[in-house]
Amino acid sequence: GAGVSQSPSNKVTEKGKDVELRCDPISGHTALYWYRQRLGQGLEFLIYFQGNSAPDKSGLPSDRFSAERTGESVSTLTIQRTQQEDSAVYLCASSLDGQTNEKLFFGSGTQLSVL
Amino acid sequence: GDSVTQMEGPVTLSEEAFLTINCTYTATGYPSLFWYVQYPGEGLQLLLKATKADDKGSNKGFEATYRKETTSFHLEKGSVQVSDSAVYFCALSDRDKLIFGAGTRLAVHP
User: Do A41 and B102 touch (CB under 8 A)?
Assistant: First the structure.
């Protein structure tokens, strides 16, 4: 597609349930990033993929959070046993090859609400 | 660790007013610096960047100069338009990722 696509755009879930968030990066982009934005706060880095490998998972807040990427394309962020503090907008971004001066292309995000 | 601090919003201006949004950073190395913008209903997009000290990034009438001595990268525009209303994020590069500030909302009124 023309840009980074994320689905669903909105997700409402009950505390304790598992959720999966999907990101389709721009075709040919080898680097993929997940960020989280809580209400009124900045973007919080979660994880970075180069190809299908994740050399930097330092931002994942707990072992309830995991992510994978397949085919150097689609990525899924999974949150197990969701908690209310997980409520946030989850943003995905991709770039051509992960060089630090490169432009990141962002999706519109998934708004997650945990009741 | 590395971090970015930007002025709190919202910033409310009349059309054609001068804009400054302050951004300062803390970094152990020599990062590249960025401003990203999020227009209503859209994803973040790169506005401008500077890769070394004294570089000036510019785009769409916005400018920011990389000041190593004051560890700052303030965003400026001489005459804002209603269409500039958005949330602006300052960011720095940290090895393999970008670290973002909290964002500053700008509202421009006719």
Answer: yes
Residue B103: exposure state from Cβ atoms within 10 A (0-12, 13-18, ≥19): buried
Of A4, A42, A45, the CB nearest to B43: A4
**CA closest to B47 among chain A residues:** A103
C-alpha to C-alpha distance for B50 and B44, rounded to whole angstroms: 18
Residue of chain A with shortest Cα separation from B35? A103
Using H for helix, E for strand and C for coil, what is the string for chain A? CCCCEEECCEEEECCCCCEEEEEECCCCCCEEEEEEECCCCCEEEEEEEECCEEEECCCCCCCCEEEEECCCCCEEEEECCCCHHHCEEEEEEEECCCCCCCCCEECCCEEEEEC
pLDDT digits (tens, 9 = 90+) for B9-57: 899 999 999 999 999 999 988 899 999 999 988 889 999 999 999 999 9
